[in-house]
Amino acid sequence: MTEIILFPSAYGLRPAVGEAAGRLRAAGHRVHVPDLYDGRTAGTPAEELEIREEIGRDELLRRAVAAAAPHSDAGLVYMGFSMGGSLAQTVALGDERARGLVLLHGTADIAEDASVDDLPVQLHVADPDPFETHDWLTAWYLRMRRAGADVEVFRYPGAGHLYTDPGLPDWDAGAAEETWRLVEAFLSLEE
Length: 191
Known about the structure:
Elements: E1 3-7, H1 15-26, E2 30-32, H2 45-55, H3 57-68, E3 77-81, H4 83-93, E4 100-104, E5 120-127, H5 134-147, E6 150-157, H6 173-189
Parallel strand pairs: 1-2, 1-3, 3-4, 4-5, 5-6
């Protein structure tokens, strides 16, 4: 059993997040899903931007750290969707007990002094992705490797940005199923 913290996208705790957590729990993992938006969800990009800006990046990061803290002694695998991936990456790189990092649709910048000891990382991203451009991902990959992470990148041609969410126009059933198959294999190695 792997202990996982799963951060939602900027849309909040949509049904797809609960379905993902359920799938991971059915595979035998313990999954913690924090509500960083205090019960609010967004239905459009404009709504998610409004909520995100109202709360603020620093407060969202503070909430993510606070949500992970009670479980971090167990050695968490950090996971997140889009903005949640950005938060998962930032928190995982600061947690010396992190056991893994799974990024779905999103990354974050990496501090020059970031250092991890062979942290296993999977990134799943649409190709192309307007928020995760090829140039950005190349630089991100090199910085993660320089920090000491063991990184695998999986690109899904033709998929939309949030292709794992069946409630959004980006949904791509084939890409989503392949992503979950690879994520489950990754998690079985972390047990």
